[in-house]
Amino acid sequence: MNKQNRRKFIATAGILSAGTAASAMPFKKPRTKKQLVHHVFFWLKNPGSKEDLAKLIAGLRTLQKIETIKKMHIGVPASTEVRPVIDSTYSASELMFFDDLAGQKIYQDHPIHKRFIEDCSALWEKVIVYDVIDA
């Protein structure tokens, strides 16, 4: 093989390899809907009651059965360092991810959610909700 043909062969092989590698890469579709994040903080009437906290957490876990919740996290305040920007006065929180506003609306109206409120609202004295949508 002469030098010129060898260079063409190597260049063509490089282009074909790059094209094959690019086609094997996963293609990420652009989001057409904006994801909604629903974060709720609960302050118990009896913050020292382990029984009330257990009831609240058990109630929150029932919400996981709602089909429009894509991901859910239930937690309590972490024992991180004390800083002026940290509020650890709440008793528990739930963090939920929905594909869009419509999914969150289904959750709000869902019988399981309504039952949770009915069964657990006597446990808390305060609730704060932060709903955030993709920017």
3D structure, described in words:
This protein is α+β, with helices and mostly antiparallel strands and 135 residues long. It has one domain: 2-Layer Sandwich (Alpha-Beta Plaits). Helix content is 40%, strand content 23%. It contains 4 helices and 4 strands. A 4-stranded antiparallel sheet has the order 2-3-1-4.
Assembly type: single chain
- Total helices: the number is 4
- The termini sit apart by 57 Å
How large a portion of the residues is in β-strands, by DSSP E?
A: 15-25%
What is the domain total for the residues?
1
User: What is the succession of H and E elements?
Assistant: HEHEEHHE
Mean pLDDT: 88
Instruction: Going across the biggest sheet, name each strand in turn.
Output: 2-3-1-4
Basic shape: elongated
Uncertain ranges: none
**Rg over CA atoms:** 25 Å
Produce the secondary structure layout.
Blueprint: H1 3-24, E1 36-44, H2 50-62, E2 71-75, E3 92-98, H3 101-109, H4 111-120, E4 124-133
Highlighted features:
135 residues; alpha+beta; Alpha-Beta Plaits; 4 helices; 40% helix; elongated
Overview in brief:
The protein has 135 residues and is an alpha+beta fold. The protein is 40% helix and 23% strand. The protein has one domain (36-133): Alpha-Beta Plaits, CATH 3.30.70.
